[in-house]
Design brief:
Layout (H helix, E strand, L loop, with lengths): L2 H8 L3 E2 L5 E2 L7 E5 L10 H9 L4 E5 L6 H11 L2 E5 L16 E5 L5 H13 L4 E5 L19 H13 L1 H5 L2 E2 L4 E3 L5 E7 L3 E8 L5 E6 L9 E3 L5 E2 L9 E6 L4 E7 L4
Parallel strand pairs: 1-5, 3-4, 3-7, 4-5, 6-7
Antiparallel strand pairs: 1-2, 8-10, 9-12, 10-11, 11-16, 12-15, 13-14, 13-16
Length: 266
């Protein structure tokens, strides 16, 4: 079976090494789990149900196991999951998240749990559309460690999956907005403004072990009124300046904020 045939069989997107693509990118943003079957190469309905129950919206299946692709698709439809076929995962880093491809992979087993949210939200802010968490296990549902326990990465990954699913239309509308100027320029910090149609979105991530503080200046076209953090419902206000709104930010180590404001408040 060719790669393209496999992608068409699953009704999903196939992404190989580098920039190889066949099919189309899913219309909605997708948070997925690398799934290799139980045993390896054999999909199991109970595994897919467990993945969906945690809030993930897809499974990423290795290309070398396409012999079971039809059965996987049928089971995934029952579970309410999208299937993505990939060849091998390419681990996301804080640096690569600044210019990610549409499909990114998180080395769940090798990434401390506290680092997951800022790196993944950074990648989403810069254009990643499908995020696949890989526990690196050769078989199983991918949600348990080798001893059968729940690893630390599941909680932040689950939170991201649910936030992206709930705000799917908003995330799908993300387009790069006006540039942000920060003083001082700090390593590990990324502030990105996104135009999401009616709202503006500001994604702030600190991918470092140090607390970062400073002042960010936004475009004069952006409101300085009260912004709401999608992740926890907290609010943030900015100072009104002639050069544009100013935000005195203070982000804890590995901190992340996803602030939203309606453009009509200007």
């Amino acid at each position: 079976m060719t790669r393209r045939a496999a992608a068409l069989l699953l009704g999903s997107t196939l992404v190989g090494s580098g920039s190889l693509r066949a099919g189309v990118v899913p219309a909605d943003p997708l948070v997925s789990v690398w799934y290799r079957g139980t045993p390896a190469g054999v999909p199991r309905q109970d595994d897919l149900v467990a993945i969906r129950a945690l809030g993930f919206s897809g499974v990423t299946w290795p290309h070398m196991s396409t012999a079971a692709a039809l059965a996987l698709r049928q089971m995934a439809e029952v579970a309410g999951l999208t299937v993505v076929i990939r060849e091998t995962p390419v681990p996301l880093t804080a640096a690569s998240a600044l210019a990610p491809p549409e499909y990114v992979d998180v080395d769940a087993a090798g990434t401390p749990a506290v680092e997951i949210a800022p790196v993944v939200w950074r990648a989403i802010a810069h254009g990643a559309h499908v995020i696949s968490f890989d526990a690196g296990l050769p078989e199983g549902d991918g949600l348990r460690d080798r001893r059968g326990g729940t690893p630390g990465w599941v909680s932040p990954a689950r939170a991201i999956a649910r936030q992206v699913a709930f705000n799917g239309n908003l995330v799908a509308a993300f387009r790069r907005g006006p540039a942000v100027t920060t003083v001082p320029a700090l390593p590990g910090l990324d502030l990105t403004v996104l135009d999401a149609g009616r709202p503006w979105v500001l994604v702030a991530t600190n991918a470092s072990r140090d607390r970062v503080r400073g002042v960010a200046t936004l475009s004069p076209a952006i409101p300085y009124a009260l912004w709401v953090n999608l992740l926890d419902g907290s609010t943030m206000s900015m100072l009104n300046q002639s050069t544009g709104p100013k935000w005195r930010f203070d982000l804890e180590p590995w901190g992340v904020r996803v602030y939203v404001i309606d453009k009509t408040l200007k």
